[in-house]
């Protein structure tokens, strides 16, 4: 999940190795993409949804993103946030956290934030939000291993459910 143009698809491609299946949400022409990553020896489904600014959709693409979120209540949500536009991205992240989803925040475009002299205290942000926060540069792959590590650490009960759901896929 994340706002439009924050690098969601780039993070998705890094996690899945770009092994993707594009689909239209039933009854729409809005695309979303499914892919798989290996986690603890099992294939885990990853869904790249259209960008949205909030959980109150204003158009069809946002509506699809929110529907897919709601249809996957027991999933870990990777909320991709543009590090140069932190306030805008955190609005959506906080909405998702308040809904009770286990969340990992990927502070993407970390390199651009540094270039613009934007400094984010990651540890303080984690403490304030109560969820893991990982700086990433999806286009280069920087931070992706740490992101995967945090996914595994996020709400272990939920990760167990996801791994159990993945069951026979090895």
Notes on the structure:
Helix content is 41%, strand content 21%. It is of the alpha/beta class and 170 residues long. The protein has a single domain, classed as 3-Layer(aba) Sandwich (Rossmann fold). Strands 1-2-3 form a 3-stranded antiparallel beta sheet. The chain has a 3-stranded parallel beta sheet with strand order 4-5-6, sandwiched between helices. The radius of gyration is 15 Å and the shape is globular.
How much of the polypeptide forms β-strand, as a percent range? 15-25%
User: How many beta-strand segments?
Assistant: 6
Globular, elongated, flat, extended or rod-shaped: what is the shape? globular
Order of helices and strands: HEEEHEHEHHEHH
- Count of discrete structural domains: 1
Fold-level CATH name: Rossmann fold
Number of helices: 7
- Helicity, in percent? 40-55%
First and last CA, distance: 26 Å
* Rg for CA atoms: 15 Å
CATH class: Alpha Beta
Major beta sheet, strand line-up: 1-2-3
Corresponding CATH architecture: 3-Layer(aba) Sandwich
Unreliable parts: none
Largest sheet: 3 strands, antiparallel
Structural class computed from helices and strand pairing: alpha/beta
Multimeric state: single chain
Q: Average pLDDT, to the nearest integer? A: 86
Per CATH, the superfamily is: P-loop containing nucleotide triphosphate hydrolases
């Amino acid at each position: 999940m994340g706002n439009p143009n924050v690098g969601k698809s780039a993070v998705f491609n890094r996690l899945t190795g770009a092994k993707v299946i594009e689909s239209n949400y039933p009854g729409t022409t809005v695309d979303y993409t499914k892919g798989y990553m290996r986690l603890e020896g099992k294939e885990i489904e990853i869904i790249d949804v259209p960008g949205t600014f909030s959980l109150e959709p204003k158009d069809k693409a946002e509506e699809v993103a929110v529907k897919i979120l709601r249809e996957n209540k027991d999933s870990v949500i990777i909320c991709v946030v543009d590090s140069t536009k932190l306030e805008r991205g955190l609005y959506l992240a906080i909405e998702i956290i308040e809904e009770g989803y286990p969340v990992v925040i990927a502070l993407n475009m970390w390199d651009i934030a540094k270039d613009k002299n934007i400094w984010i205290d990651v540890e303080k942000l984690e403490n304030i939000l109560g969820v893991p926060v990982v700086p990433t540069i999806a286009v280069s792959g920087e931070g992706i291993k740490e992101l995967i590590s945090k996914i595994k650490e996020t709400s272990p009960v939920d990760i167990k459910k996801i791994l159990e759901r993945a069951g026979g896929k090895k």
